[in-house]
Amino acid sequence: MRRAVESLLFDLDNTLIDRTGAFYRFCIELYRSNDALRGTSTEAEAVALMVELDEDGLCDRHRLFEQVISKWPGAFRDEDEAVEFYMRRFLPLISLDPRTRCFLNDLKSRGFPLGIVTNGGSEAQWAKVRSSGLEQLVDHVIVSGDLGIQKPNPGIFEFALAKMKAKAESTLLVGDNPTADILGALGMGMVSAWIRLGRDWPFNHPRPDYIIDHVWEASEIVFG
């Protein structure tokens, strides 16, 4: 039976924003502007390795660039310089799809409580939220780095629901990670929508309530 949705929680990376695409573009820009990388690796090799080291954004930025400097000595003076470069050059590569912005504005105008619940370090995740303009489009932003717990730990969802004054059974969680987002949401009794990104659902059971290709497609779930 279709459950009414009264509030919504969204993942951030590769749900509200195309974090993978932005990081890929950052790696290309870094390679093409850095003699240390160009001197020993092809563009394809360097980009592939940095994407691997990045671990979908879960690797700490200082740890990531420690490994980059180890692989390409002279790429940066130290990790601090590298992280500063990353924050300055990566954030402008993040943009909010107009369809996502329209969807969030529509929800907000109709009075739906809206929140973001994201895994990652506080500085990096908050920078992406603010740079993309999402801070003005949702009511609450919950970052795992602020709490010391990560999805799918029930505690982070409980905290988010409490901040939103929302009930789990009438909250839709939209995310791309099968375990952190969808299994976490199902464990809380929330309605779940998985953004498949060209993938097949990896588990026989349980399954998400909905499978979609883009976050704005959740409008069909909310409004029917």
Tell me about this structure.
The longest helix is centred in the N-terminal third of the chain and has 15 residues. Helix 1 crosses helix 3 and helix 4 crosses helix 5. The protein is elongated and about 60 Å long. The model has no long low-confidence stretch (mean pLDDT 95). 49% of the residues lie in helices and 12% in strands. It is α/β, with parallel strands linked by helices and 224 residues long. The two termini are 13 Å apart. Strands 3-2-1-4-5-6 form a 6-stranded parallel beta sheet, with helices on both faces.
Strand order of the largest sheet: 3-2-1-4-5-6
Helix content: 40-55%
Structural class: alpha/beta
Largest β-sheet summary: 6 strands, parallel
Cα-atom Rg, whole angstroms? 18 Å
